[in-house]
Structures are given as structure tokens and as C-alpha cells.
Design a protein that fits this description.
heterodimer; A: 300 residues; MetI-like fold; 66% helix; elongated; B: mainly alpha; 2 domains; 13 helices; 0% strand; globular
């Protein structure tokens, strides 16, 4: 883990204040911009087949043409339309981001709540496992998992998801610890709620704020790591139109078609910036500052 | 202090135990026989037999682990599947290169981040701060490998200011050559971490400017420049030590792609070639080394923090 350790759980908002969170998010500087850009990118990913003017995998014209009316981003070394490939690459990237973040959240949240609520040996064992995974830089962890499982879209998603899970465990655990002795949890316990009920129905809904922020952060890191691994040829294998893979092939043609190296990178950076902006807007709205980019895989 | 360090070192044991199991199991998780994974598919039958012997495949699994780990403890991770040289030596060769890259990157990162962080804390509502905020967001969003391509186009290929392939020239042998070779990859990484560090500097400087002792200093007539540099900034830089320290841990092995882009012979590229060449002994040793280094760096950062700030009590 890098920038922030054990992302300190904020005192969770009482349920009543929840309505104000959306308003605060929309009034934050970065939130609405990020959400707007992400909305567009989601539409692009969902409607890729309708939006892309050409088949992303087939030859559409002469190789290495400059951007123009016919090919908005130009063509690559095989004469494929770069714009169409970037559009389909959006789908690929967001798919990895959603998959990895969902995996980490679905596995990490319950384990973290369990560790925080039950404590004892369960907690100790889980914490040592997270210590180990967090001691390996995110990109390296993904690289080793890919070395064992082989490359491919789903292995890549899984590799990034596993690497991101410990941060969720830590975050959920810290939040749970801060809630465990709260009056409403004690009240639920004194009314005879089972430990499972308390964990699932009383604690989990109240720690979702920081978890959702962390999901956004994880999505952005996942896109960056996936692009980095595809860039070095260990992520999504060609001819799939991954952004990282496109940037890799573009290196050989920097002088013939410089936009080939520039435009996919711009779209990649804008996507990550949009997710970061949403994350920051949410932190403002929830009044937390610490969820952070824990486990920075983005450096590559 | 001593008892704290001892306690922390004892906590390393379970983590290292888990790490060693995970690393050892890599060979077994790979499809195919572990012995083939160890020496490669085109190994001679003798080499294969030697690998089976080394892994102790005829023994019970816990014994196989013990056999491996007893070698690992004394630094024997076997030989590389690719070039047959002992793994430990190859690893040791790369460590100075990685440390030098980390040093350059952190220096660049701090040189960029300190002024940015200070300005945005002192003038939170100015136009300059808005520009800095955009820079910070961009520094974190733009992938380092893409910055690398752009830098190579601009500064190495077109103008020939820097070599586009960065060799490792030790700083103590040839400082100028070291600078020329390390600058571009370090700039990529430095820009990235400056985004993180600047945010920390800004946030903690804002915090300390709001403290009572700053108000006291101002009230007793200390000039504003001295209030900022001597009173506020000094305390604000303490948390920065933590961020910078932890970043060194991330730099060992976490800079794979940047090292690949610039062909820089650091630990990251060693691991990359090992992964592409399925050289598992190297992967095993490198991952274990990085875990140990990360744990030690964390411990050093915590101790340093307590030494710098007497208010921090190590528990």
C-alpha cells in the first residue's frame, strides 16, 4: 500500500444525512465533470457497435493515414480505423475496470466486515494475508498472476481484482471497528440480532460510503494497470483493440502517424482523470479525505 | 524504541511465511509439471531429473516446501531457467540500478511537488492553485509509459538530447552519464509521484497553518516568511516523509513498464523478462525480495517518523 495506510474509516454518516450526499457531490468542483465524462464513455462502451464507423479488427483503408474526414483518428499499420478501435477499446477497458472493482468489492467487503466484527484469529490471519499482498506493488502482483494463469482479458481482470482486494478488506475492517461499539449496533445486539444480521444489515449499509469511493478508485487503477500490461504485451492479446496494445504498436510508426501514439493515450488519460474526479467529488461529499489511491498500481 | 522494532520484526515472520508459501506455490500453480516449469520445456532429461531432485517431487508436499525454503533462507533460489546463472547474483546486479532510478525519481518528484504544494496551500483560491490542481490530476491520470513515449519522441529521437535507451551508469562512476541515462525514466516517474506528494504537502501545510502555534508565532510578530518556513512547513513536511518513504518501496519492482519503455536494466525489467520467458526461479526470488524490502522500508519510515517528531509514540 502506498499513499495512505489503513485508510482510516470516517465516522459514517447517519442515515438521515444520506440525501445531502448526492447534492454535495453535484456541488463539488470535480464530481459533476467526472460523472459527465464517465457517462459519455459508458454510452460509447455500450453503443460501440453503433458508434464505430468501421470494424475494429478489419482493414478499412490504406495503412497509416493521417486523421481526416474519412478516418477521424487516422488508420493504423494494418489499415484499421483507429477511431473504431479506440471506441471498442473503451468497452474493453470499462469491462476490466468493472470486473476487477466488482471482484475486489464483493470479496473484500464481507471479509473486512468479518475481520472487524469477529476479530481474534480470523482477523489476525486475514490481516497477515493483506500485509503480504499489499507488500507487492500492484502492477507486479498482476504481472505474476498473469505469469501463472496466462494472459487474456479475464485473467487480467482477475489478477487486478485480487491485487485490489486487500485494500477493501482493510477499509471495511477499519470502518467496522469504528461502528462496532456504536449505540445502534449495541441496540441491535441487545434485541437479539444474530452476528450475521448485525454484519449484513446493520454494519454493511453504514460503511458503504468509503467502499463506493474505493470502488471508483479501483476502477481507475484497473484501467491503468490493464493498459500498462497490454502495453508490454502481457495483457489483452492482439488483435483485440486494447488501448495499451494500440499504444505499443504505435511506437514503431511515430514518424509516419504521430496521432496513432497520441489519441489513444489522450482517451486513456481522460478516462482515468474522469474516474479520479468522481472519486474526489465523492470524498468531498462524504467528508472523507483518506480513502486515497491506496495500492497505487498506476505508476507502472 | 528497541522493543518496538523487535516487535515489528517479529510481526514480519507470519507475513514472510505466507509470502514464501505463495512464492513457492507459483511453480506448482503453473500448468504442467513443476520440474518443467523450473527448467523450461526444452531442458535436457538430465536437467529435468536434477530439477525433480531439487524440488524433491518424490517427497510429501510439506517436505518439498521445507526443502525449497531452507535453500531460500540462505539465498539459494536455484539457477535461472533461461541462462543457467544463479538467481541471487542476477537479482543483486539489478538492485543498484533500481535504487538509483528511485533516487532520481524521488528527487525530481520532490522538486516538482514542494513548490506546487506550498503555493496551493498558501493561496488556495488563486488561479495558480487551479492550474496546480489540474496538473496534479493530470500527473496521476496520464500513464507513465505514455509520458515515456512522448518524451522519447520529443527529447531522444528528434533532438537527441538524451539517449532513447537508458543504460545503468552508476552515479559514483560517471555522474554526467548517470544523469543523461537516468533522467528520462526518472522524469516519467517523478511527474507521477509529484501529483501524490504535492497533494500531501498542500493538505498538511494547510493543517499546520491553522494550528495555534502558527497563530502564536504571528501574534508575537514573527515575519510571515519565517512563520511559514520555520513553523508551519517544518511540521507539515513530517507526513511527507512517510509518503516519500513508502514510495521507495513501490519503486522496487513497481516500475516495470517504465523500465521496459526505456530498456532500463532495473529490477522491474528483470521481472518482466522473467515473466515473458517463464523464468520462474527469478520471479520467485524477486517477489520475495520485494516483500522483504517493502516491510523493512515501512519499518524504517515509521522509526524515522518517530525520531523526527517526538510527539509520535511508537507502540
Amino acid at each position: 500500500m502506498t499513499t495512505t495506510d489503513t485508510a482510516v474509516a470516517p465516522p459514517t454518516q447517519p442515515r438521515v444525512a444520506r440525501a445531502g450526499v448526492v447534492g454535495k457531490f453535484l456541488r463539488s468542483t470535480t464530481g459533476p465533470i467526472g460523472a459527465g465524462v464517465m457517462g459519455i464513455l459508458l454510452l460509447v462502451a455500450l453503443g460501440a457497435d453503433l458508434i464505430a464507423p468501421y470494424d475494429p479488427l478489419a482493414r478499412a483503408g490504406a495503412a497509416l493515414q493521417q486523421p481526416g474526414g474519412e478516418f477521424w483518428f487516422g488508420t493504423d499499420e494494418l489499415g484499421r480505423d483507429i477511431f473504431s478501435r479506440v471506441v471498442h477499446g473503451t468497452r474493453l477497458s470499462l469491462q476490466t475496470a468493472v470486473g476487477a472493482a466488482a471482484f475486489a468489492g464483493v470479496v473484500g467487503l464481507p471479509l473486512g466486515v468479518l475481520a472487524g466484527y469477529v476479530g481474534g484469529a480470523t482477523d489476525a490471519i486475514l490481516m497477515r494475508i493483506t500485509d503480504f499482498v499489499l507488500a507487492v506493488p500492484g502492477i507486479l502482483f498482476a504481472l505474476v498472476v498473469v505469469a501463472v494463469l496466462g494472459s487474456g482479458v479475464w485473467n487480467l481482470t482477475l489478477a487486478i481484482g485480487i491485487g485490489a482486494t486487500p485494500t477493501f478488506i482493510r477499509l471495511a475492517r477499519a470502518s467496522t471497528l469504528s461502528l462496532r461499539e456504536q449505540e445502534y449496533v449495541l441496540a441491535a445486539r441487545s434485541m437479539g440480532a444474530s452476528p450475521f444480521d448485525i454484519m449484513a444489515r446493520t454494519i454493511t449499509p453504514n460503511i458503504m460510503g468509503p467502499i463506493i469511493v474505493q470502488i471508483i478508485v479501483t476502477a481507475s487503477v484497473a484501467i491503468l494497470v490493464a493498459a500498462a500490461l497490454s502495453f508490454v504485451g502481457l495483457g489483452t492479446p492482439p488483435p483485440a483493440p486494447s488501448w495499451g496494445g494500440m499504444l505499443q504498436s504505435s511506437r514503431a510508426y511515430l514518424f509516419q502517424q504521430v496521432w496513432y501514439a497520441v489519441l489513444p493515450g489522450v482517451v486513456l488519460a481522460v478516462t482515468i482523470a474522469a474516474l479520479d474526479a468522481i472519486g474526489r467529488g465523492m470524498q468531498v461529499a462524504l467528508g472523507t479525505r483518506t480513502a486515497g489511491r491506496a495500492k497505487v498500481g498506476g505508476m507502472g | 524504541m528497541v522493543s518496538y522494532v523487535v516487535r515489528r520484526l517479529l510481526q514480519f515472520i507470519p507475513v514472510l511465511f505466507l509470502a514464501s508459501i505463495a512464492v513457492w506455490a507459483i511453480i506448482y500453480a503453473v500448468p504442467g509439471s513443476p520440474a518443467t516449469a523450473l527448467v523450461g520445456t526444452d531442458a535436457t532429461p538430465e536437467a529435468l531429473a536434477a530439477a525433480e531432485e531439487r524440488l524433491g517431487l518424490d517427497k510429501p508436499v510439506p517436505l518439498q516446501y521445507l526443502q525449497w525454503v531452507s535453500g531460500a533462507v540462505v539465498g539459494d533460489f536455484g539457477d535461472s531457467a533461461i541462462n543457467g546463472a544463479p538467481v541471487l547474483g542476477q537479482l543483486a546486479e539489478r538492485i543498484p540500478a533500481s535504487l538509483q532510478l528511485a533516487l532520481f525519481s524521488l528527487t525530481i518528484g520532490l522538486l516538482l511537488a514542494l513548490p506546487l504544494g506550498i503555493v496551493s496551500a498558501l493561496k488556495p483560491r488563486s488561479v495558480l492553485t487551479k492550474v496546480i490542481n489540474v496538473y496534479q490530476a493530470a500527473a496521476l491520470a496520464i500513464p507513465t509509459f505514455w509520458v515515456g513515449i512522448l518524451l522519447i519522441i520529443g527529447l531522444a529521437v528528434k533532438r537527441n538530447v538524451f539517449p532513447s535507451v537508458s543504460n545503468f551508469v552508476p552515479l559514483w562512476v560517471d555522474p554526467v552519464g548517470a544523469f543523461r541515462n537516468t533522467f528520462l525514466p526518472a522524469l516519467c516517474l517523478g511527474i507521477y509521484i509529484s501529483g501524490i506528494i504535492a497533494r500531501f504537502v498542500s493538505a498538511s501545510l494547510k493543517d499546520s497553518l491553522a494550528q495555534d502555534y502558527v497563530r502564536t508565532a504571528r501574534a508575537k510578530g514573527v515575519p510571515e516568511g519565517a512563520v511559514i518556513s520555520k513553523h508551519a512547513l517544518r511540521n507539515a513536511l513530517l507526513p511527507t516523509v512517510t509518503v516519500v518513504g513508502l514510495q521507495i518501496g513501490e519503486f522496487l519492482g513497481g516500475t516495470v513498464v517504465t523500465e521496459v519503455v526505456f530498456s532500463y536494466p532495473g529490477l522491474g525489467r528483470l521481472i518482466y523478462t522473467a515473466v515473458t520467458g517463464r523464468d520462474y526461479p527469478i520471479i520467485q526470488a524477486a517477489v520475495l525480495f520485494i516483500v522483504i524490502a517493502f516491510l523493512l522500508i515501512n519499518l524504517i519510515v515509521d522509526v524515522l517518523y518517530a525520531l523526527l517528531d517526538p510527539r509520535v509514540r511508537l507502540e
